[in-house]
Prior knowledge:
The complex is a heterodimer of chains A (341) and B (69). Chain A has 341 residues and is an alpha/beta fold. Helix content of chain A is 50%, strand content 16%. Chain A is built from 15 helices and eleven strands. A six-stranded parallel beta sheet of chain A has the order 7-2-1-9-10-11, with helices on both faces. A three-stranded antiparallel beta sheet of chain A has the order 3-5-4. A two-stranded parallel ribbon of chain A has the order 6-8. In chain A, α13 links the parallel β10 and β11 (292-302). In chain A, α1 (22-32) crosses α2 (35-52). Chain A is globular, with a radius of gyration of 21 Å. Chain B is α+β, with helices and mostly antiparallel strands and 69 residues long. In chain B, 20% of the residues lie in helices and 23% in strands. Chain B has two helices and five strands. Chain B has a three-stranded antiparallel beta sheet with strand order 2-3-4. Chain B has a two-stranded antiparallel sheet with strand order 1-5. Chain B is globular and about 30 Å long. The interface between A and B is medium-sized, with 18 and 17 residues.
Amino acid sequence: MGRKDYVGNPVQHIRVSGTMTVDQLMQQFRNSGSFGAGRLATACDIYEKMLRDEECTIFLALSGAVVPAGMRLLVTDLIRSRLVDVVVSTGASMVHDAIEALRGHHYKAKLPLNDRELYKYHLFRIYDVLVPEEDYVKLDYRLSEIYGEIADEKKGASLSSREFAWELGKRLDDPDSILRAAYEENVPIFMPSVRDSEFGFIHWLHSSQANRKNVLNLDAFKEVPEICGICRDSPKNGMIVIGGGVPRNTVQSATLASKKGLDYAVVVTMDRPETGGLSGSTLSETVSWGKVKGEADNVMVIGDALMIFPIMVASVVERLGKDFRREPVLQRMKKGFSEAK
Amino acid sequence: MLERGKKAKFCGNCDSHNAYDYPDRVFCSTRYAQGKDPIVDTLWFCEDYNPVSQECYCVREAQRKKKSP
């Protein structure tokens, strides 16, 4: 490469005005093109491209304390507006969604905090957010009853985590709930690490009932053909990752197993690549596995997802305008098949 | 945290009990497993927090035992 091949446009300095919209600020970030601002602007461009690409299925991978931090409604709105097609989540995020669906709350902690005192007051801490033990316990009680209902209906048949999430959403009446919105909008939620959450541990309470005939069964392998089938059938696939971990790996591995590879990838994380862990692994590293295509539009934004993701969504929604409508490609294809019949 | 004039209440830390309506009612998983109403009143409460786990037995039974001489 020659000298001039390394040099792009000059950095334009960010100008802020009092009446600026989110996307106008994002355009300033793009003109600067530098550091985190440049990466965030690129993330917005890629997400917009995914949404305007009529052949793309968009996976949202959620890990970390997304719901306790306050992004529950954001995810619900994305589902209801069809701005994501598939959610892959830790069990824990959906547990926190269910806590609020059952009228529990997450509370802002008043500083300074004393964790020993929190323990004696039965208050659980997630950084600077608190969850009262009773909100968990009320969830446990209700979940155990729901597990019983599902088990009696299914009579021993096993469910995938997607089917389990759908059954939960059916039984929650809160329109702000992620699980409820996914149930109503027919958006699949996969929870590949569902056992490693309150959903898993409450199974003990459910199965401890002396008079219980049927016990809820989940099959960890049942969802593999389900999620791989989505990747295989979709002409293109894109992912937005909040955090990383099992949800990110599940999306990436599904696109690899289905021999598709991702066409678009945005990762918002605080993790670093040096440990060799997946959450911080670069998207370039992911290309070496064939999980992300070499020519894919991709960017990693290093930062707190609670700040990054709402700004990203606000900017892109502003660009799309209020008349933008999107029908997921697989739904459109299915409709096409049934019309052809 | 505490209303003026009220004493602090810390419910027993039995292995089978969790706060249901802190600090007055608990969820008893032993009663739940037996098909009984699992929501019961807190057996006793301490004004000073006791971090040691209490002996685990049915709250209602324990209350009855406490009342009878």
